[in-house]
Amino acid sequence: MIEQLDSLSAEFVGALESLNDEAAILKLKSEYLGKKGKVSEILKGLRNATADERKVIGPKANGLKEEINQLVATKLQKIELEVINKKLEKNKIDLSNRDELWLQKLNHGGVHPRTLIQREIEDVFLSMGFEVLDGPHIEDEFHNFEALNIPSDHPARDMQDTFWFHDPQSDEKEKKLLRTHTSTIQVRGMRERKPPFRFIAPGTVFRCERTDASHEMVFNQLEGMMVGKDISVGNLIYFMKTLLKEIFQKEVEVRLRPGFFPFVEPGFELDIQCLICKGKGCSVCKKTGWVELLPCGMVHPNVLKAGGIDPDEYNGFAFGLGLDRLVMMRYGIDDIRHLNSGDLRFNSQFQAY
Ligand code: FA5
């Protein structure tokens, strides 16, 4: 019996070696250790063995059972490890390789189209010596209106429906509001530096308006200002043209018409031919074929004074680009409300990095 047990051990090791799947290994195990298995069959012979023989055969048989269990556990562990390694090998990605990440179609964040365009514009202006400024969303009447030549009784205040903060508990004298345009940053920019200077200021603005295909209540503008000596309308038009050429990488139809803004004189509206309908008329351009994009003008002397600048010595231009509308024209987006929808199906159509 001892010899039989020894040869069973060798036989098991040989049989196990050729197997590589879990089910077959467990089947082999039960062929040896199961109730009617080979080891049990041999042990049935113990009945006829002497007491001395039993003392040797018993531990030997138990040792064989233990050996088989151990061999099976080790083999199963090895197979499991191989499966994991194969999976890892197959899904291996080089995190430093963007193209590879893209090909793997992993769930990754993307850059919003507005951010893409904003970065491009910032690069264009930085290369022309402009600074990029930021400013607060919550503003006071001085920065949003008064310093921009819009006193409290001026009808121009109604041009931009304002979200006011009404806080009866507050003993603050100043009324607070959500800025209605990025021109607030013009005021802050002027008061913080001495001419000559040039800066742009992208930012979110808020208006209590009814939304439609080209109007949002929360939208984005990009302000620009240049102050120095002998700045002309020609300079203004040059910078506007450069901006549009760099963003669209082609000539786009624009028109310049007189526009009224209390903070500029003369003031202009620079419209772009609607790129959604190619000028034929659609819901974005309200059937006019043109989209209001880039109001601009020469800074009003009162605004320079409010900014601490002597209008007899310096002058300048300013513009307030409708950033969301520019994004719409660049990518052919036919409704501004897609931009803030948070819909990943929309966002994922744009460049990921
Ligand atoms: C202004 O906000 C002025 N501060 C711009 C300016 C700056 C003029 C400096 C002169 C000098 P306006 O209200 O027109 O102007 O808005 C500027 C641009 O923002 C518009 O041409 C348009 O492109 C965009 N815009 C205006 N209202 C909305 C809206 N509700 N939704 C989306 N874009 C809008």
Short description:
The chain is α+β, with helices and mostly antiparallel strands. Helices cover about 40% and strands about 15% of the residues.
Name some characteristics of this structure.
353 residues, alpha+beta, BirA Bifunctional Protein, domain 2, 2 domains, eight-stranded mixed β-sheet, three-stranded antiparallel β-sheet, 12 helices, 41% helix, binds adenosine-5'-[phenylalaninyl-phosphate]
Structure description:
By secondary structure, the protein is an alpha+beta fold. The protein folds into two domains: 2-102, no CATH class; 113-347, BirA Bifunctional Protein, domain 2, CATH 3.30.930.10. The protein is built from twelve helices and eleven strands. The chain has helices spanning 2-17, 22-33, 38-43, 51-90, 98-103, 113-126, 141-144, 183-192, 233-248, 301-306, 323-331, 344-347; strands spanning 131-132, 138-140, 164-165, 176-178, 197-206, 218-228, 254-258, 264-273, 290-292, 296-299, 315-322. The strands form two sheets. Strands 1, 5, 6, 7, 8, 9, 10 and 11 form an eight-stranded mixed beta sheet that branches. Strand 7 and strand 8 (264-273) form a beta hairpin. It is rod-shaped. The two termini are 73 Å apart. Adenosine-5'-[phenylalaninyl-phosphate] binds at residues 160, 181, 183, 207, 209, 215-216, 219, 221, 261, 264, 267, 292-293, 295-297, 318-320, 322, 324-325, 336.
